[in-house]
Design brief:
Blueprint (H helix, E strand, L loop, with lengths): L1 H27 L10 E4 L5 H4 L11 E6 L3 H15 L8 E6 L3 H8 L4 E4 L6 H10 L3 E4 L7 H17 L3 E3 L7 H10 L2 H4 L12 E10 L1 E2 L2 E2 L9 H4 L7 H12 L7 H4 E13 L1 H8 L17 E13 L2 E12 L7 E7 L3 E6 L9 E6 L5 H15 L7 E5 L2 E5 L8 H18 L6 H21 L2
Parallel strand pairs: 1-2, 1-4, 2-3, 4-5, 5-6, 7-12
Antiparallel strand pairs: 7-13, 8-9, 10-11, 11-12, 13-14, 14-15, 15-17, 16-17
Helix pairs in contact: 5-6, 6-15, 7-10, 10-15
């Protein structure tokens, strides 16, 4: 009898092991087949949630599931998807299945109608949602930032460990890697005959600088962007130093140290950080949120009728001994004809690679190569011409134009697809990773390093005031 009981127990244990293996295999069983990826979106309060679905993908089912509390955020999201479905050129054909209720997240976990969770909205509880989703064996594609403070960073590290254990992929949406001038800046920085070696720099003259200017009032998909009120509450959105700078810190790592693993404990040295507010009038707040007044939770923050939003920040730090600086500025509205702008420089021993996007460039990003040694100008030009000919295989139509004491990389319009199209390019990469069953070896440690920089900088900036 005891023998039979032992056999039964062993059989039951084998059954559980096989069941677990089967479930894990099912989680990772992506082949690139038609409609095998099913999207679930939770509480889509940011327009980036809609941009993920601006394009159809063969691998993604047209049935998409939305879980959210009732209110204007989800209504705006659904209207945006409907607009994509009804446009005249390349209309999408999403079928949105919507659950509305305060228990939206638990309902999503209970239903588990999809296998990839998209989260782009209020950041206050985003890291908790990410952790719970990967714990449940759900892949996650998250808009930045994945965490907005030190406690969130600790939880995010746990989420990555859980994702690895459960065989799911946690990935953030880094659209700026797809911008053509950034791509070419990275390519040229890897050609020693053009760039030389990355300089060490100093805190006063960093080797890599990334600066961006953004605007609260702007147009998206041809329409004025309506932002939720919570977007201006840094306890829900996060301060600028942990929000948009995520992109900039990512680019420092991705361009300056391509394919290299960055260990935040040994490879990052923080030097300084600061933050400052952009003050909004009630009229400005009304225009961008379409609300008549400031919500009550802003009352303790108002100063002479103005709402100070800590959306601006600057970080100076070192990565593997190389000095870098990132900064973000948010103004209310761009000047006539202007847009969000980006400035970047990578300083090499032979040349500097500079991205400018000012009035002189008609607010369109342009990439320039600036020689360091005038005596080597002729040889640099020859090396640059050779590099451009090689890169034309990957980037058809690019060219070279002499511009005073520097060279401009000319870029055809067909390579300038625009910010909104970059979401589709990120999705294509993520879908390929799902088929591979893994991210590149360096991605996870470098995501962790990135969020270490932003959340540590926030503490430094607050403590220095």
């Amino acid at each position: 009898m005891k023998f039979m009981l032992r056999i039964a127990l062993i059989q039951f244990a084998l059954f559980l092991m096989l069941s677990c293996d089967t479930e894990k295999d099912a989680v990772n069983n992506f082949t690139g087949g038609q409609g095998e990826v099913k999207l679930m979106t939770i509480n889509p309060g940011h327009f980036h949630a809609g941009l993920v679905q601006k394009t159809m993908y063969d691998q993604i089912s047209p049935d998409a599931y939305v879980y959210a509390p009732a209110g204007p955020d989800v209504e705006d999201h659904l209207n945006r998807i409907e607009g994509y479905n009804n446009r005249t050129q390349n209309p999408t054909h999403w079928r949105e299945h919507v659950y509305l209720g305060e228990d939206f997240f638990n309902k999503m976990l209970q239903d588990k109608k999809g296998n990839v969770l998209v989260t782009a909205g209020n950041n206050k509880e985003k890291t908790q949602y990410i952790k719970a989703a990967v714990d449940a064996g759900i892949h996650v594609l998250a808009d930045k930032p994945m965490c907005i403070d030190e406690n969130g960073f600790t939880l995010l590290k746990d989420a990555f460990a859980s994702a690895e254990k459960n065989g799911v992929l946690l990935y953030d949406i880094m659209t700026e890697r797809s911008e053509i001038t950034t791509l070419l800046q990275r390519e040229l920085s890897s050609i020693p005959d053009v760039f030389g070696e990355l300089e060490d720099g100093s805190p006063e003259n960093p080797s890599i600088v990334k600066e961006s200017v953004h605007h609260f009032f702007k147009y998206v998909s041809g329409n004025p962007l309506k932002r939720p009120a919570w977007f201006f509450d840094v306890t829900q959105e996060g301060e600028g130093i942990v929000d948009v700078t995520t992109h900039l810190v990512d680019l420092v790592q991705w361009e300056g140290f391509p394919g290299q693993i960055i260990d935040y404990k040994t490879d990052i040295d923080m030097i300084s950080a600061k933050r400052w507010p952009t003050n909004l009038t009630l009229e400005q707040f009304q225009k961008v949120t379409q609300l008549n007044q400031f919500p009550d939770y802003f009352s303790p923050l108002l100063e002479n009728g103005l709402l100070p939003v800590y959306s601006n920040g600057e970080i100076v730090y070192k990565v593997k001994g190389i000095h870098a600086k990132v900064s973000v500025v948010w103004n209310y509205e761009a000047p006539e004809g202007a847009k969000d702008t980006h400035y970047s420089i990578m300083r090499g021993s032979t040349a500097n690679l500079i991205i400018l996007q000012g009035k002189e460039q008609n607010f369109q990003p342009q990439l320039y190569v600036e020689g360091i040694n005038q005596a080597n100008k002729s040889s640099l030009e020859k090396s640059l011409e050779k590099a451009i000919r090689t890169l034309q295989d990957t980037y058809p139509g690019i060219g070279l134009k002499k511009d005073d004491e520097r060279w401009q990389i000319t870029i055809p319009e067909e390579l300038r697809v625009g910010h909104e199209a970059h979401f589709g390019q990120v999705m294509e990469r993520y879908l390929s990773y799902l088929v591979d069953g893994k991210l590149p070896e360096w991605e996870i440690p470098n995501m962790i390093a990135k969020y270490y920089v932003t959340t540590t900088a926030l503490n430094m900036a607050r403590n220095s005031e």
